[in-house]
């Protein structure tokens, strides 16, 4: 009878500990889940190229750039554009921020109203590694 009472107490204590632990995890800041995230918010024509509004989040101390590329899907002229936000212009503190990336067209490339364009954004580090790639297709 004494061992049965002890078992019930241990089981009750374990259940309370599990519930408290779950509550602490649920209440913990979700900064880890937000780090190194990219989202393409808006794409617009901006002479001479394009402008992409990006929401980003990155870990403190990260040493990378934010890169955006555009490829024209309408027609067969192969127009492309690219833009970069240098690492010293990024705010890396696990919070979400926005950046405007100006994409400059390559020589001979052009974009106009009604063009379908594929946009890709990603982080690019000093070792040449890219990650957190996001893509979308828009009509300008």
What would you say this structure looks like, in words?
Helices cover 21% and strands 45% of the residues. It has 2 helices and 7 strands. It has helices spanning 2-27, 31-34, and strands spanning 37-46, 49-57, 64-72, 80-85, 97-105, 116-125, 130-139. A hairpin with a 2-residue loop joins β1 and β2 (49-57). It is elongated, with a radius of gyration of 24 Å. 17% of the residues are buried. Mean pLDDT is 82; it is low at 24-33.
Question: Features of this protein?
Answer:
alpha+beta, 2 helices, seven-stranded antiparallel sheet
Order of helices and strands: HHEEEEEEE
Instruction: Tell me the major beta sheet.
Output: 7 strands, antiparallel
Count the beta strands.
7
- Gross morphology is elongated
**Spatial strand arrangement across the major sheet:** 1-2-5-4-3-6-7
Strand content: over 45%
Number of helices: 2
Q: Please give the alpha-carbon distance between the first and last residues.
A: 77 Å
Helix percent reads 10-25%
Oligomer: single chain
Fold topology:
Layout: H1 2-27, H2 31-34, E1 37-46, E2 49-57, E3 64-72, E4 80-85, E5 97-105, E6 116-125, E7 130-139
Antiparallel strand pairs: 1-2, 2-5, 3-4, 3-6, 4-5, 6-7
Quick overview:
The protein is 21% helix and 45% strand.
């Amino acid at each position: 009878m004494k061992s049965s009472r002890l078992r019930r107490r241990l089981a009750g204590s374990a259940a309370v500990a599990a519930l408290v632990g779950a509550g602490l995890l649920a209440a913990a800041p979700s900064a880890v889940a937000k780090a190194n995230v990219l989202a393409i918010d808006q794409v617009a024509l901006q002479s001479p190229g394009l402008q992409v509004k990006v929401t980003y989040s990155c870990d403190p101390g990260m040493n990378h750039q934010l890169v955006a590329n555009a490829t024209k899907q309408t027609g067969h002229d192969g127009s492309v554009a690219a833009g970069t936000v240098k690492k010293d212009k990024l705010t890396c503190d696990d919070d979400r921020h926005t950046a405007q990336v100006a994409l400059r067209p390559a020589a001979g490339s052009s974009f106009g109203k009604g063009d379908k364009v594929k946009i890709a954004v990603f982080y690019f580090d000093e070792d040449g590694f890219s990650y957190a790639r996001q893509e979308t297709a828009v009509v300008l």
